[in-house]
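Board notes (copied after class):
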Amino acid sequence: MISVKVGGCDVDILPFVNGLQSEADKVREAYGRHEAYGIAMSIEGIQALECRADLDDDAFAIGELDLVYADKMGRFGAVEMPSPAACALVDLCKESGTGPIPLDMDEAEFTELYCSTVKTLDFVREHRHAKKGMKRRFDAETPEDLAIEWDRFVNEIDSYRAVSEKREEYIAGQIRDVSRYRKSLLVLLEVERCDGVVALLEKT
C-alpha cells in the first residue's frame, strides 16, 4: 500500500498485478476501511464488470500483447481476464451498495487520445512486437517486477509510452478531484502505473 496525503484526504494506493488470480485476495483484505473506492478503469469498464455474468467472453477484448503477457505471468499463478483484482473491488462495492469511482478516461476520451497519439505504423508494429515479447526472456523474480518489466517492453513503442503517460496524468487528476470531497480513498491501480501517478500527486 502506498499512502499519500492529497489535500485533506488520506489516499491509499493499492498496487495490483493485472490478470493474476491471487491479486483478488489483497483487495478483499484492504476493503472496508475507506470512505470511497476508486479504480483506474473507465466507467464503461466498470459497468461491464458489474454485469459480466450476463456477457459473452467476447465482451472483454484481449489483444496479442495481452495474450503474451498472460503467458509470461502464468509462471506466478493462474491468470484470468478480466482482471480478478478489478472484479473483486467491483463486487465488494456492489455488495455494500456503493459504486467504485472510475478514475480513468471514458471510452470516447481514450479512443480520441489513442487515435491522435498512436501512429498507424506503430499499430501495425504491435503484432511484431508481441512476437518479439514472446521470445524475450524476462528475469523478474516477482509478479510485480514482471508487470513493470513488461510495461517497459510494451512502451518501447514511443506512442504507447505517450498514451501511458497521459493516462497517469488523467488518473492523478481524478484522484485530486475526488480528494476534494472525501476524507479517505482507496485506489486500485496497476503496479506499473503507480510510480508515475504517485510522483504526479506528490507535486501538488
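Comment from the instructor: The first strand starts at residue 2 and ends at 6. The beta strands are 2-6, 9-16, 36-39, 101-102, 184-190.
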